[in-house]
Amino acid sequence: MMLSCKDVSLLLSRACDERLPWRVRLAVRLHLLYCRGCARFRKQLEFLRVAAQRFSDRQDSVSRQRLPEAARQRILTALGQK
Length: 82
What we know:
This protein has 82 residues and is mainly alpha-helical. The protein has helices spanning 5-15, 22-34, 36-64, 69-78. The protein has one domain (5-78).
């Protein structure tokens, strides 16, 4: 199965969310051996996946931190919402 760069980019994107059949994975790997552009695209997808995961992890830890109640009340008062 010969894949175009367009096919490979779509398959690489799909592979982020689902496991591709082994024949398709093999065809993508073969394409990546000779296509620098698609290999670079795969690395960019991996970078974005890792960055998004790190951002998500950091957001989770920030959302678990609560502002003390006294500080919340001072802010609400200053905003005129109390």
